[in-house]
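[Discussion] Sanity-checking designs against the backbone

I'm trying to build intuition for which residues belong where. Below is a structure token string of 416 positions. I'd appreciate it if someone posts a full sequence so I can compare it with mine line by line.
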């Protein structure tokens, strides 16, 4: 009996679902090091792979700006290089397969990989920051455009899926400070929806913008909803709970990327729990971006613990593995130190499957795989209680009915 349980535990852990990971923030350090050397870009420290790995990770959390700074180190070497872009997309599928991920939704802003685009940090934060690499031209192909970047990514993903068991779909990102890119991003979502693009996102510093910016974003996401394009939007990472409310009410978000500050307002938080608003939680990055430190609450407990206690809808993701040095394995290990048990991990993976952006038939297949992996059999119909989207009804249960108890730990107990 013990052997059977052990087999089931190992087998189930090969069927995880991840909904929030940035493709260009998940490039292997080895690949970054190789491309930088090949193109003769400046390397940090003594030029070794270990020195590069250390330079990619923020050891002391401050804010999102500092967390994203390493993008300026390696992004220029990949901009406009379709071969390198296809390569890291292929390697991403392989890495996810090694982590036991059955299904993943990766996100990317194709405009950030254009040959002449400014640094990621400058664009997202709308500030001037020093570039840590020389302004060396990475490609002579001036014809590279966002469409070709998306095609390169999808080619890499398709090759990866042919070789490995993991299924990967793509979410394309708009950027709050670059509204001129947003409508083209929406068009790309529409064009490639049958080739692997399943949704649209908006990233950047999530502080309430000017009325004109809000109105423009509202029109954009209304159009996305009209076209049947799914919406997962970053909010509540650097800004307060009102940012979460804004993307839900004004932009029609179906899922929230991060959303830690939702617990700052008790009434709004309870409303989100009741409506089954889904939060894509990224434990390690939430610390390294300063999001947890910035919460306006006396408690130092991580919000994911509150969500787990209250049976809220959330999933577990890595965000930017290259910048955190952690993959899903490390995220799960951290949560175990906080008291998470296998029932909670099971629930999180099923919630992720229910809230993923796959077409209904493919979602049913994923849920069937999960039920089989976790040894759960039920033919009851389940409704995910998403009161803003009637398409969330799925057939076949699999979510544990019991409410697990979390042995609460403090974020300050975390050690590296």
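Best answer:
Here's mine. Compare freely.
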């Amino acid at each position: 009996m013990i052997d059977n349980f052990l087999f089931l535990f190992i087998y189930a852990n090969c069927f995880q679902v991840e909904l929030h990971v940035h493709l260009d923030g998940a490039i292997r350090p080895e690949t970054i090091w190789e491309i930088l050397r090949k193109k003769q870009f400046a390397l940090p420290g003594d030029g070794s792979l270990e020195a590069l790995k250390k330079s990619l990770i923020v050891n002391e959390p401050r804010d999102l700006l500092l967390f994203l700074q390493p993008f300026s180190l390696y992004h220029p070497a990949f901009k406009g290089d379709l071969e390198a872009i296809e390569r890291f997309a292929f390697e991403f599928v392989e890495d996810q397969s090694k982590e036991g991920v059955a299904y993943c939704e990766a996100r990317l802003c194709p405009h950030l990989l254009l040959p002449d685009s400014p640094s990621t940090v400058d664009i997202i934060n709308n500030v001037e920051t020093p570039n840590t690499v020389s302004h060396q031209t990475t490609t002579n192909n001036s014809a590279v455009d966002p469409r070709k970047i998306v095609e390169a990514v999808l080619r890499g993903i398709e090759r990866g899926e042919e070789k490995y068991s993991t299924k990967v779909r793509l979410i394309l990102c708009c950027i709050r400070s670059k509204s001129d890119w947003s409508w083209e991003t929406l068009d790309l979502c529409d064009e490639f929806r049958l080739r692997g693009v399943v949704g649209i996102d908006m990233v950047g510093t999530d502080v309430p913008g000017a009325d004109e910016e809000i109105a423009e974003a509202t029109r954009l996401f209304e159009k996305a909803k009209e076209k049947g394009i799914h919406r997962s939007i970053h909010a509540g990472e650097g800004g307060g709970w009102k940012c979460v409310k804004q993307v839900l009410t004004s932009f029609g978000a179906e899922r929230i990327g991060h959303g830690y500050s939702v617990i700052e307002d008790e009434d709004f938080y309870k409303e989100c729990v009741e409506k089954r608003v889904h939060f894509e939680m990224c434990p390690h990055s939430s610390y390294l971006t300063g999001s947890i430190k910035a919460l306006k609450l006396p408690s130092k407990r991580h919000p994911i613990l509150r969500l787990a206690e209250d049976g809220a809808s959330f999933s577990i993701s890595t965000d930017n593995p290259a910048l955190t040095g952690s993959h899903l394995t490390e995220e799960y290990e951290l949560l175990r130190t906080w008291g998470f048990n296998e029932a909670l991990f099971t629930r999180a993976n099923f919630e992720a499957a229910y809230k993923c952006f796959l077409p209904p038939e493919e979602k049913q297949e994923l849920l069937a795989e999960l039920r089989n992996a976790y040894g759960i059999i039920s033919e009851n119909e389940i409704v995910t209680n998403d009161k803003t989207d009637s398409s969330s009804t799925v057939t076949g249960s699999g979510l544990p009915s019991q409410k697990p108890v979390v042995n609460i730990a403090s974020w300050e107990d975390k050690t590296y």
